[in-house]
């Protein structure tokens, strides 16, 4: 798996239609709604989806660094092509595990522990501190079920779950904490919820680039007036 593996990026982009872009209202974490309510009262809305804090809704600092590195290797950024870090995928997963995906908290805790045990055995360091090439080797071992330190979840189960959540964080509506600044939608040319489409828009096969790209949060604010 290369530094910016085009096959992996292409796979994730294709999967966006079936997974991330339709990660709808059922995925809204309670943590998002609660935090949004507090921010509306305090005027601190910019903090809701920030990845700058060393601790999030669920992850501690080290686990956050691990998942941030893992998702970035799954969906690496490149010049002009946003990756998982640019899209705030870590924030999406963090909020989801504090809310709608809370039943997977132990899955992630054990998965990260086993991931670091595998990396310590293979490289003498935890995953988050490995070079990109070593992280790619490690992820490939998980994908192929060749990481012997994994018991539960299995290596492939952990890989598949983080990959699925990475797709959701890249391509779901930004209201869920990922797809920052519509990075994922811009990547695949998805227009979001436009107020209107012209006849030319409807017949065009080219990527949609006209502003504005709108999400659920914008529509909700408009409805409230």
Task: Please name the defining characteristics of this protein.
elongated, single chain, 225 residues
Overview of the molecule:
- There is one protein chain.
- The chain has 225 residues and is mainly alpha-helical.
- It has one domain (6-191).
- The chain contains 11 helices and no strands.
- The longest helix has 19 residues, at 105-123.
The helix content is: 40-55%
Shape: elongated
SSE-based structural type = mainly alpha
Strand/helix succession:
HHHHHHHHHHH
Task: Write a short abstract of this structure.
This protein has 225 residues and is mainly α.
SSE topology sketch:
Blueprint: H1 6-18, H2 30-42, H3 61-74, H4 84-87, H5 89-97, H6 105-123, H7 132-143, H8 155-171, H9 183-188, H10 199-203, H11 216-224
């Amino acid at each position: 798996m290369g530094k910016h593996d085009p096959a992996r990026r292409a796979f994730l982009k294709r999967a966006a239609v079936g997974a991330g872009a339709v990660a709808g209202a059922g995925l809204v974490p309670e943590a998002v709604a609660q935090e949004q309510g507090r921010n509306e009262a305090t005027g601190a809305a910019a903090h809701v989806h920030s990845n700058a804090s060393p601790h999030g809704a669920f992850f501690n600092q080290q686990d956050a660094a691990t998942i941030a590195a893992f998702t970035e290797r799954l969906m690496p950024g490149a010049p002009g092509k946003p990756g998982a870090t640019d899209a705030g995928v870590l924030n999406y997963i963090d909020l989801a595990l504090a809310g709608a995906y809370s039943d997977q908290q132990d899955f992630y805790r054990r998965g990260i522990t086993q991931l670091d045990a595998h990396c310590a055995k293979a490289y003498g360091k935890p995953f988050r501190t490995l070079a990109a090439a070593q992280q790619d080797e490690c992820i490939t071992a998980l994908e192929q079920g060749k990481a012997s330190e994994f018991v539960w979840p299995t290596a492939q189960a952990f890989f598949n779950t983080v990959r699925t959540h990475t797709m959701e964080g890249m391509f779901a509506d930004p209201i869920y904490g990922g797809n920052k600044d519509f990075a994922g939608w811009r990547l695949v040319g998805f227009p979001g919820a436009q107020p209107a489409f012209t006849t030319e828009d409807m017949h065009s096969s080219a990527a949609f680039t006209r502003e504005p790209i709108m999400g659920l949060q914008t529509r909700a604010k408009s409805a409230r007036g």
